Amino acid sequence: MSARVLVVDDIVTNVKLLEAKLSAEYFDVVTALNGIEALAICERGEADIVLLDVMMPGMDGFEVCRRLKNGATTAHIPVVMVTALDQPGDRLKGLDAGADDFLTKPLDDTALFARVRSLVRLKSVTDELRNRAFASRRLGIADPLAAAASETGLNGRILVIEDRPTVTERLSSALSAFHIVEIEADPHQALVRAAEGDYDSVLVSLDLKAYDGLRICSQLRSLERTRNVSVLMLGEAEDRARILRGLEIGAHDFLIRPVDRNELLARVRTQVRRKRFTERLRDSVQSSMEMAVMDQLTGLHNRRFMDSRMGTMFDESALRARSLAMLVLDVDRFKVVNDTWGHDAGDEVLREFADRVRACTRGIDLVARMGGEEVVVVLPDTSLDAACAVAERIRERVEAEPFSIHRNTRSITVTVSIGVASRRAGDASAAEMMKRADDALYRAKDAGRNRVIVANAA
Ligand code: GH3
Ligand code: MG
């Protein structure tokens, strides 16, 4: 992952120093000597993260940050404010301007790389979500970015693993204004809780009395159920070596004692956002996989899935000499529903129709919308007679109760015609069986609709 870091500072030597450090860690570095230049670079999409000096003539760092965070094309770019040690108030101003985190001058390498890496991780998940969002919009489906953009990183579930009461009190009073905080002093119990609770972030003390905090970090990162939780270490400034080790084994970031309240809030918020974005990404993979096989309107399987499954179901039943039946269903005079009540009412009818068909079938039956108002049901281990009974049950259920349309303000009568067929010994493929079910359906339409017609058994 070669991220592009934009370094913004009016003092050339500062820029050069940071450029050298970051390049040595294989980051690509872009530089700007003032706010205007920085904004232009970000607007052209040439930066993955911004290190922004506060004190600059003309437009100061806060203003640059505010403009970045208010720009539609730049709001998602993480910003780290570089503040002076003797100006702690700048951190609060930075947070107000929308900064994601802080670094204090003189810059410490461990902190610099940890912060950059942590925010690059955040950026790479938001980028992926943005890419999916553009793809989704092209396909006309729900936009995961809209949900992601509103992700504030607040109201996270946070577990603090710390055994010093004075520290836990302070952490918890700072965090609980924005998050749900739980404290656990016992390290073994903490791992159990982390695995069972659905936490967004876990803060781990590296100074526990009877246990190595690094071991907890490592366990959290390797256990299946805690692998995606964000891990933040809490350590002493002198404990640099162990903090580095923690970052190597997968902790996401760290805080140095005594913990600055604003740093704490900023860092936890970044971790909560990253965790949630990552989850959302997983959900969107899940839903795009579902989309490939599901019909969006009715939630039934789609034709593509039916085409690929039906052949297998047919072959299996032939191989094991088991029965297999199918129904082809078509809503009667559906065009009239659309013409009279509108296309949306037609959609409502289709959804309700799908629900009723589903309610009359078993879990192992395959129900798919083949297009328009035609639904196919494949019933494994089912005789022609039993399939007829299912078809009749569906027909009755559709006819018996009117369908509500226009959001429950009206209801209309709907009927369905159904053709039924079963596998014959001589059938070479599922298509032959389907052809008979189709023919039966046409006869049902011809004979006056609202009826079930069965293709002859062999
Ligand atoms: P029959 O009893 O002979 O089946 O008559 P019908 O009107 O149901 O059949 P026809 O094939 O003439 O019309 C089907 C209509 O279904 C036409 C088409 O516009 C409509 N349709 C197809 N897909 C959808 C959909 O997703 N939503 C809605 N609302 N209508 C659809
Ligand atoms: Mg029809």
Q: What is the CATH C-level name of the largest domain? A: Alpha Beta
Strand content: 15-25%
Distance between the termini: 64 Å
Helix proportion range: 40-55%
| Widest β-sheet, arrangement of strands | 2-1-3-4-5
Number of discrete helical segments? 16
* Average pLDDT over all residues: 90
Overall geometry: elongated
Number of domains: 3
CATH second-level architecture of the largest domain: 3-Layer(aba) Sandwich
Give the cofactors and ligands.
3'-deoxy-guanosine-5'-triphosphate, magnesium ion
Residue runs with pLDDT of under 50 for 5 or more positions? none
Reported by name, the CATH topology of the largest domain is Rossmann fold
Keywords, separated by commas or semicolons:
five-stranded parallel beta sheet; Rossmann fold; binds 3'-deoxy-guanosine-5'-triphosphate; 19% strand; 17 strands; single chain; elongated; 458 residues; diguanylate cyclase; Alpha-Beta Plaits; binds magnesium ion; Sig_transdc_resp-reg_receiver; alpha/beta; phosphoprotein
Task: Please summarize what this structure is.
It catalyses: 2 GTP = 3',3'-c-di-GMP + 2 diphosphate. The chain contains 16 helices and 17 strands.
